[in-house]
Amino acid sequence: MSFANHDEPFDVVTIIEKLRTWYYPATVGELSRVMVTQKMVQDDIADHDEKLDQLHTSYDGDLERLLMKRDCLSSSRQGLIHYAAKLSGLLSPIRRVPNEILCQIFLYCCAENDMTNGKPGEALTLSSVCTRFREVAISSPALWSNITALFPAAEHYDYRNRQQETKLSSLIQLYLDRSKDRPLTLDLNIEERYHLPNRPSLQLLTREFNRWKHLVLRGYSFSTDPLCPSRDCLPSPSLESLEFRYGVVNYVLDLTNNWKSLTHLRYPTTLKLDNFWRALELCTNLHSLAVQAWNTDRVTASNHPPRILPTLSSLAVINCEFDKLDDSLECIISSLTTPNLSELVLEQRNEGAVEYPRQSFHHINLFFERSQLCSLTSLVIQGLYISDRDMVALLLQVSSLETLSIHDPAFPDLIRSPNPISKSFIESLHAGRQSAFRPSVEPLLPKLRELTLKVTAQGFDPSSFVDTIASRWLPDQTSARELGLVCLRSVELHLPGTVDTKPYELLRQFDEAGLRVVVKCRGVDGILFEVG
Q1: Where is the F-box domain (predicted)?
Q2: For residue 96, how many other CB atoms are within 10 A of its CB?
Q3: How many domains does the chain have?
Q4: Pairing with 3, which of 59, 72, 123, 258 sits 20 to 30 Å away (CA)?
């Protein structure tokens, strides 16, 4: 008989009261009754335990079935998601791109094919994506015709590098095979000093000498002889572009008539400027010339009469002298005449300079007058110590200019050092006003479309700048023609330190109207201010 079904109620209160006293059953009947009740309670507990076990077993089974069903649904859902993703892949716009356009995208991605530090090059990476990419890549020899490689110095040529050399040789051979007979663009970083390393990978490239079209050589103090099967084969007949980057061509080649094929030359005038003059004499078809001066031999311009480069359309002269500024730049500029120049860059990298330079303006002005730069459309003057008045005088000679970029010197606080970007210079660019440097009513640079100014000196005047920009914003073509001007389309201003940004807020209306306006500076609140 279960205690739960017993006639007497389950009186817990009475039991608790008796437990709080010294009560003990006084009679045998009362004692027997308590013991029987206790046994019935124990039986009921056991019965409850049995029922709970049955429920747990039943619930565990149900829970396991539910969990299995949940996992099954989750797995099925994940499969559907993957399937939907694959279906979306079939509808991807890239699949509708014609192979011809896809090949052009690949060409953009494979401009270098970097094989340094064990990398496979972009062309090989693209060809490993999918079957279609592989077919397009392999059927496009131009993708494999660009090679960028590093050749470590002999002291670093250990076992690990020998393994890398074997891998590099295999890669280069693969690229040469897949590029077929396409002209090659090579960027070779040679760490060896004095003599080029005799490496199998380099020999693979020299065997394809006649295919070289664009060559960049990086390194220090190396001889180029190992690049040539014979003394008269560099440049190759197809070579159009030759660049020497941050290095010394220690032994100058016996330059041959093959140099006439060069249209682009980047040359470091290191140690001997005579080598540079000789190169110019033989490169009679140059369209683009970049000269980078490092530790030159101080050859004076008087030793070399100006050389006329009638085919040259782009010239960049970058002076990297640290101890005496502008010497090499003046020497090179004084020795050139370029009547058909359309792009000119004059740059002074004077980090660490402590000496005020000699007169740059005189030599540059003579170069402008001598070359009669009537077709010059782009001018960049960076880091040169030229006064604002002299800068205006230079610009008066190039009315055809469409793009102008001027960077103040890096050290504007040098004693007596002039800075080209000043309030008077900005006012000279105003389209409708005369200025102290421009008494004529004719506007300076009437065809100017793009203007970039990077200021390093403090105290830049915002009001004159905003006023000048407003005077050249002429979106109405009729008004622009009446004034003899072209509408300014882009202006960029970089300011140093912390400035009040409120005056430049007026430029936002021009930016919203279509003029590209970029102003970068740090406001008085410490937040970087930028229009555009």
Answers
A1: 95-147
A2: 8
A3: 1
A4: 59
Separation CA 107–CA 129 (nearest Å) = 16
Contacts of 492 (CB under 8 A, 6+ apart): 451, 452, 453, 516, 517, 518, 519
| Distance from C-alpha of 320 to C-alpha of 70, rounded to nearest angstrom | 71
Strands 336-337 and 378-382: unpaired
Strand, helix or coil for residue 422: coil
Residues 255 and 25: their CA atoms lie apart, in Å, by 129
Q: Which long-range contacts (CB under 8 A, 24 or more apart) does 269-275 make?
A: 269/293, 269/294, 269/296, 269/328, 269/332, 270/294, 270/295, 270/296, 271/295, 271/296, 271/297, 272/297, 273/297, 273/299, 273/304, 273/328, 273/331, 273/332, 274/299, 275/249
Helix (H, G, I), strand (E, B), or coil: what is residue 61?
A: helix
Domain that holds residue 67: 19-90
Euclidean distance between CA atoms 290 and 274, whole angstroms: 16
121: left (phi over 0), alpha (psi -120 to 50) or beta: left
Q: Classify residue 52: in a domain, yes or no.
A: yes
Give ∠ CA 422-423-426 in degrees, rounded to 5: 90
The pLDDT confidence band at residue 246, using thresholds 50, 70 and 90, is low
pLDDT in tens, 264-297: 988 876 646 677 777 788 888 899 999 887 655 5
Q: Tell me how crowded residue 342 is: count the other CB atoms within 10 A of its CB.
A: 17
Tens of pLDDT, residue by residue over 78-87, are: 887 887 887 7
pTM, whole model, 2 decimals? 0.75
Distance CA(315)–CA(289), nearest Å, equals 5
In a domain, 283, yes or no: no
Residue 146, beta-bridge partner list: 185
